[in-house]
Write a structure and sequence with these properties.
mainly alpha; Cytochrome Bc1 Complex, Chain D, domain 2; about 260 residues; 11 helices
Length: about 260
């Protein structure tokens, strides 16, 4: 074998693996995420209801233990059982957790909200919601559809509540006259003209719409927007009512006895 032939053989041997890599690597892709094919089927309204009380929406068993190990990593909020599994209990009705309405008081946990992650990718939000293998693991109680709906709600359904409610006074800045007209159209048939037809606290019989709207306007704003789990209360967002007009309803509700 001549020196020229040997050099050609060595060159081909060295080049062959490179040719294989070039030929095969172009078509390799990372696995698709669940939301890649299912994001368009996610339901933002259902996500808002799941955020409130997911086991009522997906018809799971009501949790009886604490959401551990996450819940026991804090000591300031002393609630136990099912309450510790509600998204709102950690992240707040205003979605800002320790930086919002739950920055102090009995609901304080020190946990962050979800408002700041709304701009993350759908896949990242979905993965965080499901929390598989983490302290936030909900994979045993939430389906892929549940996690997708919650992710869409976080991505597209959140609002900056401070634009509508003064955190120092808890008063809505909405228009009470417009809110009264909207209340008569959408709410009065169930809640009554004085807001007390439905009592939200069986213990003292005094927690109607007026009480709740002043005591926890953040919760009422959320429920006006998305409805109330396991009830006929509709989502005003679904009915095409703007967030400004929804705030008007809240402002009117705060005038009720």
């Amino acid at each position: 074998m001549t020196k020229k032939t040997r050099r050609l053989g060595i060159t081909l041997i060295l080049a062959f693996p490179i040719m294989l890599m070039v030929g095969c690597d172009k078509t390799s892709t990372s696995p698709k995420h669940y939301v890649d094919d299912n994001w368009s089927q996610a339901d933002v309204t259902r996500g808002g209801l799941l955020y409130d009380k997911w086991w009522t929406v997906n018809e799971s068993s009501t949790p009886t233990t604490n959401f551990n190990p996450l819940w026991d990593s804090q000591t300031t909020n002393t609630r136990t059982g099912a309450d510790t599994w509600r998204c709102k209990e950690c992240h707040g009705w205003d979605y800002k957790g320790k930086d919002g309405a739950y920055s102090s008081g009995s609901h304080y946990t020190g946990f962050t909200g979800v408002y700041d992650v709304r701009t993350s990718s759908p896949a990242d939000i979905y993965t965080s919601v499901l929390g598989t293998g983490t302290d936030h693991d909900l994979s045993a109680v939430l389906s892929e559809q549940d996690a997708s709906d919650l992710a869409l709600f976080i991505s597209e359904g959140l609002i900056d509540v401070s634009l509508y409610i003064d955190y120092s006074t808890k008063l809505s800045n909405g228009n009470t006259a417009d809110g009264g007209d909207l209340y008569a159209t959408y709410c009065e048939s169930c809640h009554g003209s004085d807001g007390n037809t439905i009592d939200f606290d069986d213990d003292d019989g005094s927690q109607g719409v007026g009480f709740l709207s002043n005591d926890n306007p953040y919760e009422v704003l959320h429920k006006i927007r998305w409805g109330n789990p396991a009830s006929i209360m509709p989502s005003m967002v679904n009915l095409g009512v703007s967030d400004a007009n929804i705030n008007d309803i809240l402002a009117y509700c705060q005038t009720l006895p």
